[in-house]
Amino acid sequence: MAKVIVIGAGIAGLAASIKLQNKGHEVFLIEKNENVGGLCSGFFVNDHYVDICLHWLMGTQEGNNINDLWNEVGALSNDVNIISLPSLGSFEYEGTTITFHRDLDKAEEEWMNISPIDKKAIHQFFETVKAVANLMNIAMSKDSRRAKAIDLIKLSPLSKQIIMSMKQSREEYAQNFVSPALKFAITHSQAGYNNMFFFFDLYGIFSKGNGDIPEGGALYMVERMKNKFLELGGTLLLNRTVEEVIVKDGKAHAVKTNNGTLKADYVISAIDPYYTYNKLLKGKYSSRLYKSLDSNIDKNTISSCFNVYITVEGDISNIDVPTGLHISPIKVGEKETDFMLVRPYYYDSNFIKDGKTVISLFIDQDHNDYMFYRSLDEKSYKKEKERIIKDMIDSFLIRYHHFKEKTEFLTCFGPIELNKRVNTSYGSFQSFSFTNKSTYYINNGKIKGIKNMFLIGQWTRSIGGTPTALLSANEIVKFIK
Question: CA nearest 153: which of 162, 165, 142?
Fold first, then answer.
């Protein structure tokens, strides 16, 4: 059996390590932080639990391939309580609330009552959600033989609408509606910059009950994965920074860390590809795909965020999970925005302590915002953060003014902090987006010029996220002999 070094203990690194250790390989999992999870993790601030990632998880429903994989790596099990929310969120615009109910018929009827003039567009919207949901059920079913997505789409009676949605931004699609509230809700219906098709996909999965939340969120999920790896006999090296992958004669022979060098038969990098190529491989190897994506980043766009966490004392159950607010414009990073997402965590007791519940305030960011923050010196950046925190909390309290004396700031993070934590390019929380201007891509994980080194993680295909990280780990294991 082989000695395998896995760099990065996020979802992809943990999943690959578990599967390889379970096959009898000797696995060393190296993580630069003091805990596992990478971007999918959480921590405690003043005894309050903050989840920096998991708002919903694809594959929570039994009977599909992704659920099987989550169970195989210990992320889910029969003992894990799955929390189902009644909606994907509500969006408020000038006194009108648009809700994306899990019950699609209920949502359609409610939308029709709000804007009868949009009857045709509303019906077409929900018919497309249902069609995409059915396609995803087929794609994830145990009987599926890995049919290509485009072939499945062509079988749908709504194939034209589905394919067209790949070429439309959410803002462009929203122009099909007359109601300003519906336009606002659809434009801001998801975090990041993915095209309209991705939202149909997301909403469809959610409506089928396959996008729920494991109790305890990210921290508890990755801890289960860590424990499974250790129980199998794997070696976890925390607080260990990888400085270089040593390559000789087209093979990765060893990994140099800040605490010694480890030899290996195989090396798997489960971190950002740019950091892998430019830092770990010292720029001696390259990828045509990632060079192209980076040089056309305005078309592909990465998704980051500025996230402020607060606690609120009292009953907050009247705030939907999440609620999108139309706010007075505030400057966050490089641009002004009139939208902020409010996510209360009252559905899970882990987020409630002494009658105070954690709430996150979220604003989208991209590579331009990251570069803006990078241009500031330490003192200026600190001052800018303090202003943004105040503006975001003030925006929350304008809408929920009755919580003014019951709100406390916990912590925050933005693109700079995300980059520091896991070396993610431009401080992103997802890989390159699948926008209306980009082409969907999948990378097979092989590194040209190195026979025994592979790349896994959410950056291996458009959109990214935890499912991509999991699937890429599962697919790469077959190359390890």
Answer: 162
Give residue 89's identity as a one-letter amino acid code. G
Cα–Cα distances (Å) from 338 to 33, 93, 266, 365, 451, in that order, read 35, 11, 49, 13, 49
Q: How far is CA 294 from the centre of its chain?
A: 19
Residue 151 is predicted with a pLDDT of: 58
Report the sign of the C-alpha dihedral through residues 138, 144, 147, 151, in that order: negative
Largest CA distance in the chain: 68
Which H helix or E strand runs over 184? helix 180-187
Q: Are 194 and 434 in contact (CB under 8 A)?
A: yes
Instruction: Tokens 């926008």: give the residue.
Output: 435
Query: In the prediction, which pLDDT does 156 show?
Result: 64
Instruction: Spell out the domain ranges in the chain.
Output: 3-44+58-80+215-295+439-479, 99-208, 303-427
With H, G, I as helix, E, B as strand and everything else as coil, classify residue 413: strand
pLDDT of residue 144: 46
Whether the pTM exceeds 0.90: the reply is yes
Contact status, residue 185 vs residue 173, Cβ threshold 8 Å: no
**pLDDT the model gives residue 145:** 47
The reported pLDDT for the residue numbered 136 is: 78
Nearest Cα residue to 132 out of 53, 54, 211: 211
Residues of the chain with pLDDT under 70: 141-157
Strand pairing category for 260-263 and 352-353: unpaired
pLDDT, residue 142, reads: 55
* pLDDT tens digits, one per residue of 283-303: 999 999 999 999 999 999 999
Domain 3-44+58-80+215-295+439-479 sits in CATH at: 3.50.50.60
Query: Residues with Cβ < 8 Å from 234, sequence gap 6 or more?
Result: 17, 18, 21, 27, 28, 29
> Given this model, what pLDDT does residue 157 score?
61
**433 and 33 in contact (C-beta within 8 Å)?**
no
Asked whether the beta carbons of 476 and 13 are under 8 A apart, the reply is: no
Take residue 422 and report the two structure tokens written for it.
């896991």
